Amino acid sequence: MKKTTLRIVAAVSVVGSTIVAAGMASGAATAAAPATVSLPPYYSELDVTGDEMVTAADLSVAAESLGLTASSPDWSRVAVLDTDADGELTILDLADLSQRIIYDDGPFELVEASVIDMQAAMNAGVATSQSITQEYLDRIAAYDRTVVPGGSRPLNSIITVNQKALADAAAADEIRASDGMTSMLLGVPIALKDNYDTVDMVTTGGCACWNENQTATDASMVSGLRSDGAVILAKASLDEFAYGFVSEFSSFQEPGATSLVASPYDTTRTAGGSSGGTGAAISANLAGIGFGTDTGGSIRVPSSYNQLVGVRPTVGLASRDGIIPLALSQDTGGPMARSVIDAAVALDAVVGVDDADPVTARQEGLVPESYTSFLDTDALQGARIGYVSSMVGTNAGTVRLFSEATAALTAQGATVVPITPPSGFSAVLNEGSGSTNEFLHDLDEYIATHLGPDVEARTLTDILATNSFVTSRRSIYVARNAVTEATYEGWAGETGTHTVQLAAGKTLVTQMMEDLDLDAIVYPSTNAYGTQGTNMRLSPNTGMPSVTVPMGQTIAGETLPGSGVNLEFLGRDFDEGTLLGLAYAFEQATDARTAPSLYGPLP
Hints:
Elements: H1 8-15, H2 56-64, H3 75-78, H4 91-98, H5 115-124, H6 129-143, E1 158-161, H7 165-179, E2 189-193, H8 220-227, E3 231-236, E4 248-249, E5 259-260, H9 276-283, E6 289-294, H10 300-305, E7 309-312, E8 332-337, H11 340-350, E9 384-387, H12 396-411, E10 415-418, H13 425-430, H14 439-449, H15 460-466, H16 474-481, H17 485-492, H18 497-516, E11 520-524, E12 526-527, E13 530-531, E14 546-553, E15 564-570, H19 576-590
Parallel strand pairs: 2-3, 2-6, 9-10, 9-11
Antiparallel strand pairs: 1-3, 4-5, 6-8, 7-8, 7-14, 11-15, 12-13, 14-15
Helix pairs in contact: 1-4, 2-4, 6-7
């Protein structure tokens, strides 16, 4: 992670007792960020003024304390500022402290910018939410539906751009000007998979049959993002109704016509799915942070193909209300981002109990104030991390990358433990998805409660009659339409076979972790542009959370050289904080993500 810095000249001016406020640039906020903003430890651990962040006031205290030593009477009050641990407060400590302020008045580069980079530039007045939003809009216009030099087909990652995005960005800028940085998402542009309801854009689910689906409300998770001041920039492409891994959609196309989302690293390849549009858009820097949904791998597959951090939360951490369902026994929404810090900040905004999604009642008392508090570079120290050798597979590139990843975990202080899985583990991995037996039942529920009034196709039978869908899947939709209520209940009812197996899977894997005192289980999320066994099934078939993070790229002599492959961390229910901490420490140690060269800064 880039360490945002207050320029050293500011630190020097503090020494001369001229305190430069974080927000000194013309047009920037002059108010200090309120203590309600949750920051990662790096940006809060050196606070000595009690507001849980480093500001000019902390620099003032440090400047006044220069020269104090460990033998000085007031040392205990400022000892935390002695970052080089030499027993004396010096200009070097002051310079280090200045790096902890979220403020940067240097040039701002949008490509690969994190939320910290954006907030620092906006706090300094170098950028505004409006300018950042406009730059993302320009990138979408320039890159998304064109074949770029060196490419072979368009990304096709965006279905709809929000016509209100710039107005919302202006509102965020006004909040910053009057109240300071009220949230780490204030003014940050977000792309949502086009199965999240939004009051200002239609929600097609990737299907032309629902081009007119303008809902009256936002999805619950979208409401959380807006409450934190995020700018909803666009709706991202997806595999129609979130069904598969190739991200083929029919929205706003003639009957029978479809488009595919391309990987920004190799446009001859798929971006994965079903959240492939989100994956391609965030990796190509067409938005700040993205959100996808995951039933059987739909966040984690495109995250792996596109070298992103993806979070599949515990089922029950974030409400699914207002999201077009695939199979509610396993559906969950989560962030897709270029860094762990971005994913953690985004996750903070969308968690919470929601009466409209009763499963969220499970989280009561189990959610931390902020997931950013777990983001410590030393998080792997003393951790115990297990792996099942059969989940590594035999692909040469994946085997090498996994070996290097476990070596990196060990080098950072973790103990990597081989697991001999108990009887029943294969049944966990081999349990099927609910996308066939649950789709009709769950879709009908969404239609009854959320579907916009202008949509004519209000049943799956109606959709089949339109011919406005991915017609190669007609037989799949016909089969789903034939599922009876009795079949649904026998599968997903209270005592249904699928319900029973998911509960058994959670119990078995949790006990497996308890027996070995594990903090997480790791495995490759995918191979290069291909799945790895049934690895994607472990999280959805237990309901337990997982975080996937880049671990490197394949090389010459391996499958598809230059392709990204991710490492996935799986943990206990509602232990996303631990997983994000482990993933953060791994990310900081390896720096494995690469940006797609075809989609660099605009000329």
